[in-house]
Amino acid sequence: MMNDFLKRRVLGAMLLALLLFTGTGWAAEGLLSTLEDEIADILDVNRSGVVRIHALYPTEAGEAGAIFTHGTGFIFDSRGYILTVEGAVEGAEEIRVILTSGVQMKAEFVGSDSLSEVAVIRVPTQGLPTVAIGNSERIRIGHYGFILGNDFGNLVHSTGAVHEIDRDNDLIQVAARVQTSYGGAPVFCSNGRVGGMVWRYPDLSRMFRQLGLDDRFADSLVGLPGLPTSVYVIPINRAMRVANRLIRDGEMVYGWMGGEVVDMPQKGVMVTGLALPGPAWKGGLQVGDVVLSFMGRSVINAYHLRRLVMDSEPGTEVRLGILRESKVRAHTVKVDRMPDELLYTLQPPIVAEQTPSPEQAVDQGWNGLWQMLIRQK
Length: 377
Hints:
The chain is α+β, with helices and mostly antiparallel strands. It folds into three domains: 3-47; 48-251 and 348-377, Thrombin, subunit H (Beta Barrel); 255-337, Pdz3 Domain (Roll), CATH 2.30.42.10. It has helices at 3-21, 25-46, 86-89, 204-211, 236-249, 279-282, 302-310, 340-343, 358-363, 367-376, and strands at residues 50-58, 66-77, 81-85, 94-98, 104-113, 118-122, 144-150, 155-166, 171-175, 186-188, 194-199, 231-235, 255-256, 259-263, 269-274, 290-294, 297-298, 317-324, 327-334, 336-337. Helix 1 (3-21) packs antiparallel against helix 2 (25-46).
């Protein structure tokens, strides 16, 4: 994410030490100003493509008023398509988008995916400024990201370093403190392109709605004991795959072959179970087979194969390289649609922590937060 920037920073630090040692501190000050200007340029160039999202939710029957939540999104298609997180817009009675120019407009809900929690909305205006989309596969631990989010009415930025990449759950963790209204905010790389999208931590908006509160209380939460100091980010490659499917089909469906596999010590994965009658079984796979390749790509581990299958569209015929009885064989399997009941088993563990009950909140050290919410209510 920050390869070029980090190189410049290291070089700058070395020159700074040299300049300070030689007493020419004015030159070192100039180097720091240059780095700050580069960061400012990245944010300024992309600011017009980031939007604030206000969602209106009805209260329960018999209760007066309505609940408002605040979120962030970014325009990735000049036809008016905006990427955000499901928690910022799901179930909303009305969605309003506010551009950096101050112009407000109603947005329509295009679709969302409960597994990735990616959502797409659209405003009825074409030719809007867009952000540039990058490649999240290049992100490494230690890279920096620049977050531009909605701080309850103002677009402000936060900067943090990547300190964990969870390949199993396809999430990136960045050490940055943000507001809950940053959900859906773009995370920019040093090249000015989006490398990921902020995923709410924890999903306080849902907690607020359960308590009959709105997001306006969230701006007082930063600094409370128990709140995390890092944010989970959805890699942009994953977010865009989902977004394109939502635009095309109105829903996101995942591929499924109906097999259980475990990693092998050397290469490939071994089939340990088959759904009957599932796609893998129909394609001739047997328990004990070792899957070496998928459409010509070497299979690294069980997670890798699962991702390859899930990213395949249902109805697609895929070629598998199978090792059976010391012989490599070729099998063709027709990918099916993953049953809805299986999607819930694939939710990353952090999802369960997004909306704790009051009892769980106390156990997790969130007692101060919940007491504050109860008092506000």
